[in-house]
Amino acid sequence: MQQQQRLNLVLELISERGNVSIADIGEQLGVSTATARRDLNMLAEQRLVTRTHGGASALGSGYELPLQYKIARQADAKLAIARAVEGLIEPGATVGMNGGTTVTEVARALGRSERMSSIAGEPGVTIVTNALNIAFESSVRENIKIVVTGGVPRRQSYELIGPLVAASLRDFSLDIAVLGVDGLTAELGATTLHEGEADASRHIASVARRVVVAADQTKIGRSTFARICPLDDIDVLVTDAPLPARVAAQFEKENVEVVIAPTGRATAAQ
């Protein structure tokens, strides 16, 4: 296993548990005590974890992995969700996007899509985003026109936040908004870990005729710090596994269409 893969997994463990010991890491990853200690020291030097006696802990209760360490998480699910979302977008559409790994995969799927080929020099799709990584990657695609909002970048996620986001979007009208979230419940709707990102995502959704949430099953039934929008503001949820019956009934009551992206795993009929 390469070091970057190990660091990803160690950060996942700390994110999920709040703290881990060197022994935990050795058991989970099958590495030596010396390797586990070196990895924790490296993460502590990068100020991604707090080093403790015999292990490490998360920096706080609202601990958030930097974007570059999230890429490997739920990778198959995110790719499947991205393909399904791409299928919901019509050629020529104007698409709002916030940040995050799942939405980044949606942008990549649009860039690869034969349906979104440029016609007579016109772009196959226009992406309006506050995510600098999406803007950077998509800018080399001839079939995509990129519009970037104003704002101040957050290093954790590469997303632009602040009042300039709303000011940039004020005169826009989007066909569809594709939002990544950290949590989605019937009671609170779509949530994320940072209030600035929630505000930016809310503004993107407010100027779109249709709102699609792209979220793998680990986000469903979980609520996080900052609310993006209530459930009844969401038109479609694209996820990778059928919802529990009670949750599905709540989403149906709020007229949220649920699309299950095929991942190759066996899934029960909804």
UniProtKB/TrEMBL annotation:
Q: Where is the HTH deoR-type domain?
A: 3-58
Kindly give the SMART domains that the UniProt entry links to this protein.
Answer: DeoRC, HTH_DEOR
GO molecular function, one example? DNA binding
For this UniProt record, the keywords arranged alphabetically read as follows: DNA-binding, Transcription, Transcription regulation
An example Pfam family from this entry, by short name, is DeoRC
This chain's protein is named DeoR family transcriptional regulator of aga operon
Species annotation: Microbacterium ginsengiterrae
